[in-house]
Design brief:
The complex is a heterodimer. Chain A is an alpha/beta fold. Chain A contains eleven helices and twelve strands. The longest helix of chain A has 23 residues. Chain B is globular. Classes of the chains: A alpha/beta, B mainly alpha.
Amino acid sequence: MKASTRLRTPALLGVLILVSIACGGTGGGGGEGETYTLGVSNTLVGNGWREQMICAIKAEALASGVVDEVVVVNENADTTGQIGHIENLISQGVDAIIINPTDREGLNSVIEEAIAQGIVVVAVDQAVTAEGAYVVTNDQEEYGYLGAKWLFEQIGGEGNVVEMRGIDGVPADTDRHEGFMRALEEFPGINVSQETFTGWDPTVGAQQALDIISAGDVDGIWTSGIDYTVVEQFQTANADLVPIVGADNNGFIAQLLEVDGLEGAAVTNPPAIGGVGAAVAIAALKGENPDQVVTLTPEVFDHTEESDLNSLYDPEQQVGWSTYVEIAPWTNYEAAQVSECAGPGE
Amino acid sequence: MTVATVESGWARSWRKNVRRHGWTLGVWLLLVGLMVAYAALLPRFGAFQITSIAKNSLPLVYLAIAQAVIVIAGGIDLAAGAILVLANAVAARLMEGQTFPVTLAIAVLVIVMATVLNGIVGWIITVSRVPDIVVTLATLFIFSGVALLVLPSPGGGTSEGFRALFTGSTSGTGSNFVPPLLSMAVPLALVAWWMRRTETGLSLYATGSNRVAAYLSGVSTGRAKVVAYAIGGAFGALGGLAALAITGSGESRLATASGFTLRAVAAIVLGGVALTGGIGSVVGAAAAGIVLFTLSPFLSALGVDPNTAQMIQGVLIVVVMMIAGIVELRRQRAL
């Protein structure tokens, strides 16, 4: 009896020490001040939306107070390259990996490998099908549907529209297209006269818009977020404006507020989804068991007086910025922290 | 007397060898140094990390070898990345749902097709006398376009065995580094031996170094170029197959093609292949391919801002070239 008690105390102590070492991870400190390292993989560099997504992740990490470092792998890459990113982050010993995936299935085996090594994996913006991964997205199908429906109603359910998509094969693009097609089925009088892929690149979108304007005979344009450059092309070409659907880009919101005769709608697709993803990752690390799937439903703000466009506009920010950053109940940061774009220790 | 002559002969040949292969040696030392530094930065470095680097650098290494062979023979192939993408697309489309033996047969078929196709490109360049850079710029767009026709959006597939062949694991991610290292070393050793030890291989160096002189000394320069482009095609296809094994599905984007082409050119320059032709080796180019690949995870582990990482890669190439230039200048002055 006595002997076993005497043995139990050191054994318990040993276990406690082991557990605290194990929990400390790369953060170093165990116990109360437990901190984490977040890894981020982004494969589209120089894109305003993606950059803001990363800023939102950093801001949320800082605001949470429990993250001591955010390691960002930000490099143009295809699926092969992103597998390299994730393996690199695993090697660096991060506690959670937040990715904006290039492919719905192609990353699954490396994601499952990360999860097997005890790392929390969160896919933001676009979904993955890997088992055990958290998926935090804007509802892209609804994004396509709501915007297209608004457009088709605006032009009276009849006419030629152009669908300006993003990157072929990327999950978000495929989902939006599905939503677009769902709306199209409800409006038999609408004809899709042209479909383009902008690659979410403003310069490419501008050239395509110019071609569309030159070809004429278009009654409405739906864009996958390459919006303000399209309006600019109409202005440059001095052509009659047609209804245009875009996203919550600061530049497009400004046009909806200021350009005479512009009819259009901004469908929200907040890059702050990155902040939500970081919040989910941190909650999972703390053992709070967040929902495996978080989906934000887009909102439509059109040019009419009723919609509160001003709440989306920030004259201080650049054209590609989204002011729709505070997303309850997930994010804990102040809007200014996202603008500052500084993570812990920066 | 005699002993002294023998010794100085030895020393001379040793010195000659170091001079001849100095750059290649230097690049391999750079690679080893980089690996040690990278390993020191990581909390753990083991089979998983070695496998990761070995398999993920495969496509670039194959492409660097392809470009090295062509540039040594006096050409340059801007479509090298497009061949990678095309082979990737065709293989992904054909291999989907097939068994391992069938996917192996398809892989051989794809390599043969790419060899013939790029051999024809080399033949067109030789016969038409249109500069390499113009013809291959055209084939860059043609091959990328065909790849998009074959595989309009990412998809297709391959067998688990085929994935293990290049990556060491049926899921494409794992800790078995033997297959990826072997699939890098075996083709490299073959082509390196072939270029230094066979008549045709040496004719590539002769053609690249001075086409007229080579022609006048009886080298079939046209044939050398066609062969160089054909081998380049084969290694481009290997790159596409390796990429397919890593992801398990195919992708055909022009951005991938042009990006790979440029990185392969960067790799051969760093690897000591002269863009003017005739100088360098595939062994150096292959090592430089791994260096260029590893640089980005290394800089990330170092905590370098990702936006400056690419700039550092460029600076590294310039610095290496300048050091080489200074060494060369000093040697010429010493003579």
